[in-house]
Amino acid sequence: MVANAAVASDNEALVFLSIEGVRLSQKGTADGIHEQGFSPLKDLMENFVKAGGKIWVCSPCFKKRSLSEEALVPGATIVGGAKLVEFLGDGSPSVSY
């Protein structure tokens, strides 16, 4: 929700998936996740990417779980930690849950 609000406000926005969150980078994983009062996660992710948001996936976390690059959701890119540090090093604000 917050990422969608950021990208809708014409801010550069990205979501960095790490640890078990990297599983959301796989097609179909978000399909059944729907918390009452919110849009389904699949819709939130799709809308985020359509609005220009980026989904970065932690490379070591992805590899450790033997996930499939062919099954990446649209907008997802596997990156190393240095890429995230570079993004944050430019003074970009960060929110973590």
What does this entry look like structurally?
This protein has helices at 2-8, 41-50, 59-64, 81-89; strands at 14-17, 54-58, 76-79. A three-stranded parallel sheet has the order 1-2-3. Helix content is 33%, strand content 13%. The termini are close together. The chain has one domain (2-89): 3-Layer(aba) Sandwich (Hypothetical Protein Ychn, Chain: A). It contains four helices and three strands; from the N terminus they run αβαβαβα. It is α/β, with parallel strands linked by helices.
Proportion of residues in extended strands: 5-15%
What's the helix-strand series?
A: HEHEHEH
The structural domain count equals 1
Number of strands: 3
User: Do you know the CATH architecture?
Assistant: 3-Layer(aba) Sandwich
Mean pLDDT: 94
The CATH homologous superfamily is called: DsrEFH-like
Defining traits:
97 residues, alpha/beta, Hypothetical Protein Ychn, Chain: A, three-stranded parallel β-sheet, globular
Question: Could you write a compact summary of the structure shown?
Answer:
The protein is of the alpha/beta class and 97 residues long. It is built from four helices and three strands, in the order H-E-H-E-H-E-H. It has one domain: Hypothetical Protein Ychn, Chain: A.
